[in-house]
Amino acid sequence: MLDSRLEELRRATLAAFASASSGQDLEAARVEALGRKGTLAQISKEFGKLAPEERARFGKLLNSVKQDLESEYEKKNRWFEEAQLAERLANEWIDVTLPAPGVRPGSLHPITQLQDEIEDLFTSLGFAVLDGPEVETEEHNFDALNIPPTHPARDMQDTFWLSNGHLLRTHTSPVQVRGMRKLGPPLRMIAPGRVFRNEEVDASHEHTFYQLEGMMIDRDVSVANLIYFMKTLLSSIFKRDVTVRLRPGYFPFVEPGFELDIQCLICSGAGCPVCKQSGWVELLPCGLVHPNVLRMSGIDPDEWGGFAFGLGLTRLAMMRYGIDDIRQLQSGDLRFLNQF
Ligand code: DAH
């Protein structure tokens, strides 16, 4: 009776070992047969019930079954280990005699690429590219742009003030002031650069971002000139004809001031999630330069006039490349940057 249970254990376990398709299968079969609470252990417990003359014979059989199973287990286990090692070697094999891949060449940041393109366009139209300081005076950033200390527009921008009374520029518009004072009229200038606002950072707000300011001052500059330059700019950026519209917008340094919208490039005006079903996307604030602004920089508004615009370079880069989180732009993450 016990003999046949042993024989059955041997047969069943050898079969389980043979059909095991992984090291785990094999181990499970071993535990079931040979583990501390396994079948063999249970059968051994019955040893005491045997007649004394039976015990020697049964003991031998028990040992032989145990040894058979153990040695079969060892054999198969070694086989799994070798197969696993062979697989790792095949997968992780490298040819150390191959030449090294070398240094990965860098690439231009998407904002830089866009900025370069716009600079090329405007230089071809006779505009100078100006640079201004990131640490600005209150006068350049606010007063000279017709934003006096008491003006509510100062609340529109959350400013990083420095302890010496200066500030981190909140827009590129102070470069207009520097351009007018340094070069005088007639003037065609753009000023790309970094600007700073004390913002709560999230997927669409950053404390540091990029704008591109533009200004043209001449005799007889009208809204028609403004529209022409803006359409030329946007058609060149989006590489197709764009339809624009102007809505009134308020900025103290322009009068009249506008929000320029483009017809949605995704749905061509039909309405879609990108344009929130309106058919239009707000893109660029602009306007005719306020006489006070001209006057404060020494230009006679009776003789000269002009337009100005403030392009959100960061936002435009996000639109163009389909970037949905502004924080990626300054992350320095190569997985992001490698795509451009
Ligand atoms: N400086 C404005 C801002 O950052 C943007 C702006 C609006 C610039 C109208 C302009 C302009 O030159 O005409 O919010």
Structural shape: rod-shaped
CATH topology of the largest domain, by name, is BirA Bifunctional Protein, domain 2
| Beta-strand content estimate | 15-25%
Strands in their spatial order, largest beta sheet: 1-4-5-9-8-7-6
Low-confidence stretches: none
CATH architecture assignment name of the largest domain: 2-Layer Sandwich
- CATH H-level superfamily of the largest domain: Bira Bifunctional Protein, Domain 2
CATH class of the largest domain: Alpha Beta
Mean pLDDT: 92
Terminal-residue CA separation = 77 Å
Fraction of residues in H or I helices? 40-55%
Radius of gyration: 39 Å
Q: Please provide the ordered H/E string of secondary-structure elements.
A: HHHHHEEHEHEEHEEEHEHH
Bound molecules: 3,4-dihydroxyphenylalanine
Helix count?
11
Give the domain tally: 2
**What does the largest sheet look like?**
7 strands, mixed
Q: Can you count the beta strands?
A: 9
Written overview of the protein:
By secondary structure, the chain is α+β, with helices and mostly antiparallel strands. The protein folds into 2 domains: 2-92; 111-337, Bira Bifunctional Protein, Domain 2 (BirA Bifunctional Protein, domain 2, 2-Layer Sandwich). It has helices spanning 2-19, 23-34, 39-45, 52-91, 110-124, 138-141, 174-183, 223-238, 291-296, 313-321, 334-337; strands spanning 128-129, 135-136, 167-168, 187-196, 208-218, 244-248, 254-263, 280-289, 305-312. The strands form 2 sheets. Strands 1-4-5-9-8-7-6 form a 7-stranded mixed sheet, sandwiched between helices. Helix 1 (2-19) runs antiparallel to helix 2 (23-34), helix 2 (23-34) packs antiparallel against helix 4 (52-91) and helix 5 (110-124) crosses helix 10 (313-321). The radius of gyration is 39 Å and the shape is rod-shaped. The two termini are 77 Å apart. The model has no long low-confidence stretch (mean pLDDT 92). Residues 171, 173, 213, 251, 254, 285-287, 308-310 line the site of 3,4-dihydroxyphenylalanine (DAH).
